[in-house]
Input
Amino acid sequence: MAKPISMEVWNPSGKYRVVSTKSMPGARWIRLLTDNDCRLEICTDPKTILSVDDILALIGDRCDGIIGQLTEDWGEVLFSALKRAGGTAFSNMAVGYNNVDVEAANRNGIAVGNTPGVLTETTAELAASLTLSAARRIVEADQFMRAGLYEGWLPYLFVGNLLKGQTVGVIGAGRIGSAYARMMIEGFKMNLIYYDLYQATRLEKFVTAYGQFLKANGEQPVTWKRAATMEDVLREADVISLHPVLDKTTYHLINPERLAIMKKEAVLVNASRGPVIDELALVEHLKANPMFRVGLDVFEDEPYMKPGLADMKNAVVVPHIASASKWTREGMATLAALNVLGKIKGYPVWGNPNQVEPFLNENAAPPPACPSIVNAKQLGLPSSKL
Ligand SMILES: NC(=O)c1ccc[n+]([C@@H]2O[C@H](COP(=O)([O-])OP(=O)(O)OC[C@H]3O[C@@H](n4cnc5c(N)ncnc54)[C@H](O)[C@@H]3O)[C@@H](O)[C@H]2O)c1
Ligand SMILES: O=C(O)[C@H](O)CO
Output
């Protein structure tokens, strides 16, 4: 079994042993745990992605709760080890939890926390940045300048796509998809077409009200449409941004057939999870359609890109940084720590994972609740009345 190389220990005499598989930004999450009688052990091993064996060694013989990362494989082996070590609580430091086998957690009676809400605007802003970078060819133009190739203004130099008045398509209009849609609609006066399993009522109301405001000011109103099929979005939209969860229904949601029905000059953005796109098919599509552009934050086999992607000028690629603002990352750490602490203390589960602000207020004690436990129902955990 692999041995953890370096650990940082806080409040060594604390009653509850809590482990974090990574150092996380901010100090509040550490304070919240240590002020509540937790001995906190943070793995400071420089290895980027810990293996199951590494984490087994971290769990050891006694562990009450553990904070893990989206790069780790949380399944039967780890949850049964946590149970044997007396643990009842795990939290991902992420809203997405496709790296977690929730059924295995249920079997072992382990609560699984995630960190919704605090990433919404930050992730949507990165998706908007990728949209603009791809549409206006920012990275290509930057590389051109740095290579000393600029000889003066030319009518055809780096001509890209205008967004105003075009249609933005959103697949997965949940928290992040809706926030992204609002940015593109309010910022660039784009029309909306979206596909989701559920109606995005608040988003629809926002677009209607904004359209009325524009009309009252003598401008072209923006419009919205809920598509009956994903294909309708792909055919109609000029910009398409992907924001669904990753599960069986969204794996390779963008495949060769669906790429083929998109506009030849469309912009495709993915800040959800890599396997939502068949990346090899995307590389072929980018080769065949030089005016088709993508902005990618996530990749099918992270940290790798599929062969050929790095050579494509019509792709903007960044290393899974959509949630990387200081406020968000500190908030994610806080929510993850409070999920674990709340379960250890026997607190109920917060009623609305979309409204986690009370947990993020630095000037007040957080509510006595777990902010977001995805398997609360399956484990029969009580709901907070606050
Ligand atoms: N790149 C990043 O750093 C980053 C940051 C945050 C979140 N994410 C990813 O974004 C995802 C969404 O986060 P969120 O907070 O908006 O979650 P959310 O639950 O609010 O939204 C997800 C939406 O996807 C919809 N959906 C599910 N299956 C679908 C399908 N088959 N077709 C269409 N829509 C479907 C759901 O109905 C829901 O509205 C996360 O699960 C995570 O994987 C990535
Ligand atoms: O799911 C999440 O929370 C993200 O991918 C983290 O950036």
Observations:
- The radius of gyration is 23 Å.
- Residues 60 and 107 are 20 Å apart (CA to CA).
- Residues 326-345 form the longest helix (20 residues).
